[in-house]
Amino acid sequence: MSVLQQNYAEVKRRIAEAEQKAGRQAGEVGLIAVSKTFPSDDIREVYAAGQRDFGENYIQEWYEKTETLADLPDIVWHVIGDVQSNKTKFVAERAHWVHTIGRLKTARRLSEQRPPEMPPLQVCIEVNIAGEEAKHGVAPDEAVALAVEVAKLPNVVVRGLMCVAKADSDDEALRVQFQTMQKLLADLNAAGVRADVLSMGMSGDMPVAVACGATHVRIGSAIFGRREQKGKDGQ
Ligand SMILES: *Cc1c(COP(=O)(O)O)cnc(C)c1O
After folding, report:
1. Cα–ligand 1 centroid distance for 34 (angstroms)
2. Residue 95 belongs to what domain range?
3. Does the C-beta of 201 come closer than 6 Å to ligand 1?
4. What is the model's pLDDT at position 232?
5. Which residues of the chain fall below pLDDT 50?
6. Ligand 1 lined by 136 (C-beta under 6 Å)
7. d(CA 141, CA 231)
8. Would you say the CB of residue 113 lies under 6 angstroms from ligand 1?
9. Which pLDDT tens digit goes with each residue over 207-226?
10. Which residue intervals define the domain Alanine racemase N-terminal in the entry (predicted)?
11. Is residue 72 part of a domain?
């Protein structure tokens, strides 16, 4: 096993442990391996160990990877970074999931540009859960209303909600944020949008997210290693 494959096995083990501690079913929490800034060969290694779902933030970088990895037909691409209007076409044509819908306009473009022969694009509404100035996403009290509008679009399907917890939160502060997400998902269902996904939990806060009902965790550095600092937003 390579180092990445060992890291991957360890992350899988930690997720299983968190599931068990939280009284959740084994295998219930999906893992999205966040490969941003890492080369396609690293993705291949983790793919060879069995991983299929990969998350990418930067559309241009991801574009190149979809080309290099075109021979892996069952790879599932999750866009987890901001999608600017001029990038929606490519995302609509190649992504399986977009976790970062914060505006109706973006969702509308994705729906319009989704090729008719493809299944609807699966999307999550990104919630700016701690109301941080520098973060993307919709305010918590606007999330349900946005999701209801997005759910009316023909070629996207609202799967649920996504958040990035505030950095440096202690476990109690994390719980408050993740439990608010759980409540928002219940509100969303009460509003008539059947959605079951909570995309939350990263390398540093995965166990708390799993305890609070995360269905998909997005893990980067614990698998691929430390990222080079690329400035604000990692760009
Ligand atoms: C980078 C990133 C992750 C993974 O973060 P790690 O701390 O490396 O696990 C998850 N979600 C989003 C939105 C990210 O940008």
Report:
1. 6
2. 3-224
3. no
4. 41
5. 231-235
6. no
7. 30
8. no
9. 999 999 999 999 999 999 99
10. 10-226
11. yes
> Is residue 65 domain-resident?
yes
- Nearest CA residue ID for atom 4, ligand 1: 220
- Tokens standing for 217? 């965790």
Distance from the CA of 78 to the center of ligand 1, in angstroms? 12
Give the model confidence (pLDDT) of 105-145 as tens digits.
999 999 999 999 999 999 999 999 999 999 999 999 999 99
30 lines ligand 1 (CB under 6 A): no
Domain membership of residue 206 (yes or no) is yes
Our answer on whether the CB atom of 57 is closer than 6 Å to any ligand 1 atom is yes
Domain total in the chain: 1
Q: What is the CATH number of the domain that holds 169?
A: 3.20.20.10
